[in-house]
Amino acid sequence: MAVPRNALRKWEKVREFALGLPGAAEEFPWGETVAKVNKKVFVFLGTDDGSYPLGITVKLKDESAHAHALTCPGAEPAGYGLGKSGWVSIPLAEKGAPAAELLCDWVEESYRVIAPKRLIAELDGR
């Protein structure tokens, strides 16, 4: 399955943004790309090899951000019970998928939910 170029560009921007946050690290559990802070995942980036549709999964505690994310085409509460904790899976290749800027805002929101206070303070100081 070919990966749509615009979806791949968004994915790359989101990945680069996530890894630029203070203390962020990239890992590959389950053959999937994730960004972690303090050993905890703050964004699931899936795979970019075309084996699954490109998408991201973020934790959104802010009710309006969470509701907004769920209105995106194809978006749904994350599987494995993660949806109950505010995790939302957002496909990137759907027509009308969110712009990279909005996705990065959501990644930052997810990071702020999970990162320790000292790293959030570092981010706010930038």
From TrEMBL:
Spell out the SUPFAM superfamilies in the cross-references: YjbR-like (SSF142906)
Q: What is this protein called?
A: dGTPase
**From which organism does this entry originate?**
Streptomyces curacoi
